[in-house]
Design goal:
By secondary structure, this protein is an all-alpha fold. It has a domain at about 35-83: 30s Ribosomal Protein S18. The protein is about 35% helix and about 0% strand. It contains four helices and no strands. The protein has helices at about 20-25, 35-40, 50-55, 60-75.
């Protein structure tokens, strides 16, 4: 008779809470490229755009955030790289 090694009784998978899109839940109408404080929350210290899987945005809003960040960089509102 074979005995299977069993898992400890208290072992359970910890469910990771799914991130919600802040822009969908907040019912924001549009993203303005001139709003530097808002866009800085989607940029790392090095100046890179935070990806969708990390920020929790939906695909639609991640595209608009990316476009707004790039437009803000061209306008000079947001720096391209860290200083």
């Amino acid at each position: 008779m074979s005995t299977k090694p069993s898992k400890p009784r208290g072992f359970m998978f910890k469910r990771i809470k799914k991130k919600r899109c802040r822009l969908c839940s907040g019912k924001t109408e549009g993203i303005d490229f001139k709003d530097a404080d808002f866009l800085k929350s989607y940029i790392t210290e090095r100046g890179k755009i935070i990806p969708r899987r990390v920020s929790g945005n939906c695909a639609k809003h991640q595209r608009t955030v990316t476009k707004a960040v790039k437009k803000g960089r061209e306008a000079g509102v947001i720096p391209f790289t860290a200083e």
